[in-house]
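Write out the 3D structure for:
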Amino acid sequence: MSNIKQVWNGVLKELESEVSAFTFDLWIKTLLPVCIYKERLVLSTETEAHHNICEKRFRETIKKAAQKVFPLIADVEIITPDMVSAYEEYKEFEIGTDEAPASEEPASFFAGYTFDSFVIGKSNEFAAAVAKAVAEKTAGGRPSVKYNPLFLYGGVGLGKTHLMHAIGNYIKEQNPKIKVVYVPTEKFINELLQIFRNSSNADARVEFRAKYRSVDILMLDDIQSITNRASTQEEIFYTFNDLYLAGKQIVISSDRPPKEIVPLEERLRTRFSSGVIADISQPDLDMRIAILQKMCLSEKADIDKGILRMIAEKISSNIRELKGLLTRVISYASLTGADPNDMEVISGALRDYAEDTKEVVTIQKIADAVCRYYRVELDDLIGKKKNKEIVAPRQICIYLVTEFLSIPLISVGEFFGGRDHTTVMHARDKIASQIKENQVIASQVKDLKDAVLNK
């Protein structure tokens, strides 16, 4: 288990590589961790001015880093010093992690993630049914080849991690002797890389393998973060094989199906596809309202369905953000002593969110995303350079612009250094064709679309 300081230190390490040193030292490092409250990491600023800047400019960046390190965190809340006392009773809260040494009992699963708390609809009913079957069979000591491995895929925040923790919670309740390990793939890889760096420690790899190959069920979350290092994929391959041949259950999650994960060795792709593949798609409006109603029930919050519908209409593609928005309303009403059904309260609670979502997709935003992704300069992207390292990102950028924006091709060409519309058409059609034939290009375009849409 990790306390709030350990959680924040982990997030800081991630953020240090995500933002400039100046930003990190001046704004991020000065934030103070307060607590984990209702799946939110609560941070305090030193002054009101500090709060306003961090809330508007850095909250989303901090949130993404926090979720990368601790997937159970649904949101980040930045508060002013005068609000800290309201969270005093929550300061002792601890969050489970996968970082326990191999000799210790694996970390606890998040108690709120159970099958009972998972709202089922058309978008996820098959995934939920298979996950429950896996939990029941594994708890009974008889994992089924039919469901092994179970591969869950879907967009960010749609419930993959919830189902994995629900499996763990169910098994621990029904049969505590079953050894269950859940780990984000990135954490698995980081542990392995640490062993490679300390190659002088001969026992480290033995302990690492014992930790992950002596379990009854292994759950690897976000497998799409796998690297293209041969040694990393080899370790995952042999871990998979050892567990599978021993009749142990494997559960994997990703934001895309196995055939679209790049880079991924074919032998791993084949094994990931050998069991049951279940997708979780975006919930419709009625299901999103049902999710909010269930959350209100668990929080003992009496909020009108009309208010819940308004919240559900704001977010359509991420259940985690949906819950975070409702939590913001409930917390705002609780801390101010107001009625959560008062429209002034709702407007106050959602004001920052509304401001954040006003940002629209522009040609500049797309270009900036491409530059960050491929690590190229904007001047080169829109300039005359014709080397492969620049031309490929430029063509992908042109394709994305034509996908996102309904603007004349001649205007697109003007942005890219005065190129004519036939050049724009060539780039657009070339990438459209490559997406169908080349999984690497398809995966890169998907990543960029998510980045542009802030997913």
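The chain has a mean pLDDT of 83.
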